[in-house]
Amino acid sequence: MLGVLLVIALMALALAVYFFRGQRGLLRESVLMGFVLWGMGILVSTEILSFFCALGFWGVFIFWAMVLVFCLLSRFFYPAPGGSAAAASNSWPFLERVFLNRIIFFSTCLGIIALIAPPNTYDAMTYHMSRVMHWIQNHSVIYYPTHIPRQLYYPSFPEYVILHFQLLSGGDHWANFVQWLAMCGSLVGVSLIAQELGVGRMGQILSVLIAVTIPMGVLQATSTQTDYVETLWLCVFIYFFLSWRKTLGWRDIFWAGTSLGLAIDTKGLALIFAIPFLFWMIIEALRPINPRKFLMIGVALCLAGLMYSGSFYRNSVYFHGNATKVISADADSLVNARFCWEGFGANVLRNTGLHLITPSMGINTAIEQGIYKLAATLHIDLNHKDWTYIGTNFGPIDFRGNENYLGNPLHLVLFTVVLFFFIVFLKFQTRDAIFYMAACLLGWVAFNAILKWQPWHARFHLPVFVLFSPLAGLMMERIKINGVLSGTMGVLFLSAWVIVLINVAKPVFSTLSIFYPQNRDFLHFMMAEFPQSTYLKYEGIAATLHKMGCKNIGLIMGPDENEYLLWAALNPSSDPKIRIESLLVNNASASLKYPLGDFIPDAIIAVDDARPWLNWGNDVYQVVWRSGAEGKKISILMKGPLA
Fold first, then answer.
1. What is the count of structural domains for the chain?
2. pTM passes above 0.70
3. Structural domain of residue 554, as residue ranges?
4. Are 476 and 95 in contact (CB under 8 A)?
């Protein structure tokens, strides 16, 4: 599987930087630089190949082969730094080695799950994976008519990575691995941030162990969600900002600005968490006032804008220059309609409540009722439409192994204790730690002040929890009570394994286990409303279309349908002549042209559409097949009268 070429390229870039710098103690920093170079390579190569409509296997393969050749040649010019990290680690205290081995073992197990399990989350089925398939089909990332506009205007970097894996491997086996790689990079970033805050080796290891056991992170590390990729770039940005404060070097500005741009091109929410650190940069430039520092900050922002320029340009064209839409196409539904203390309080209570969960439904119900009573006492309307996502209400709080909803109760308790210790005990109150904590808390405040509450907000909180881990590591290290360390870390480590076992999308011990190869096709449908019947429907559609020799497939569906299920069933990688396009689109993308030219379908797939016939061009299409009663009706329409 040539997908491994992309992983080898990442490691080669990190090692090339490491050899170039020639200092053994800079290995972790070199890893982060390797990630940034890798991300830039993916972004730039995708945009260039797309511009020439050459986005395919050979273009991507040749690019990464050239990168590997360059890294190999650089090895001959720069000798490896001396010393052995493995030998050095053997002299570490027993407890440090135990914690480090736990991190390595647990992360490796998550990586195996990520590789084996197919993508099956709701967002993956609607737009993450679907947009990748359209890009492969069109040999370009140019916009196209679609019933699901999120495939077009949402930030695209994580899907660019999946795209490269998909083109090299010919399938979706590596799709989840992107988030796992991002988790590994984030853990390196967490350890380095802790180091910049004055935390010793034990505290750095504890910081990483705390981060890797975050329940939402455990689930997301094996999925195609994008929050860990966002977290990776935020960690890189923050680390190089902290490093820049000491060196005032252009090198740190380059890495910080570039990673910030990659974060924005991953998820617009990254700006909310990054802005407090940008304010911190400005404060540093004012103490004392230094024009050179302001110039550096400006360069960093320009680099960030450059990384996002491709997506920004396409959105500008798509939204006809409407600046508000270009920045946030979903602002009307996602941003609070009113900015007031009541809305802020409602969001704080509900977002915190998402993490106050236990396995007991009775306790969860009591917590929910307590939050409603507290809101009533404070005269807060929890579910007012001005600060609540349309069609949703707070509660009931549920403990479920789903990467869209699971909270982080133990980590919330730990971080609350950390906050208390920092306020009460002076030995924790270093200037850097105080500023860092303030920046993290301001990001949390801004999140609650700006965004309407949604039931799936727990996954958006992942960066906050990861970025708080270095502060927890600092506190745990300075307590210096081995029993407390071992007990706390043991509880977090065991709870993380529980999360692995209750992951509803990636079952481990059941007849539907991801480790049974025969289950893989079905597991794509695992998160559908009716998995078994939906799987049989799409298998029936694929069999019917293959039997009739249909290659050009039209698609009619709603804006929230699982489009990728059709791609997975038809498997166009086994037949490149298959072409799938959306028909009768009724959103802004309807005015776009098909990138491959005019389209005349051999058959039309209609989801939840009861029409017995329809017109397309000069042809009439009539129903020749319709699915069963359970779930949404799916029809196949073909030219001419009924057979």
1. 1
2. yes
3. 521-639
4. no
